Amino acid sequence: MDMSVRGEGQSPAVLAEMNRYIPVIHGMLDDRKMTLRDLAVRSQISKSRLGIILHRQPTKRVIMQLPEFIAILHALGFELVHAWAGAKKLESSDIVQDKSFNALYEFLVEFNVTFPEMMLNTPEMEGVEFRKEWSRPLAALLIQRVLHELERRRRARDEFTLEDH
Known about the structure:
Layout: H1 12-19, H2 22-32, H3 36-43, H4 47-53, H5 66-75, H6 80-91, H7 99-120, H8 135-164
Helix pairs in contact: 6-7
């Protein structure tokens, strides 16, 4: 591969890193039944440019620039964290076929997108002290609370189902 043409002077490591996200973007396009033309209109990136940065054959790709990556994700209705999580999910392909794993993964991604914003916009958080070393214990506490709530919802659903029969 001619790095001056295909790699735009970038290192092979940069190309490999960006290549992790191309299948994720293709999956997002497929899920939305979008064409490159649709994506071009929404992202304001030419169809020909999209064709070479999203080429299905890695050796024919050109490295996309960060503004292009962000524009593509936003055109698809996603943030950077969604792409990162999608790449991690593909790397865990041995459990990707498990529907409960997929549901959990989607929950975790949305949680990690919405939770920080919600927390930052909570008036009661103003003036509260936070320390990095508190993050794991608070995360463990939050997990216990989530598990408790999920169990409560499962019991309520089961009771509702029993009432119908």
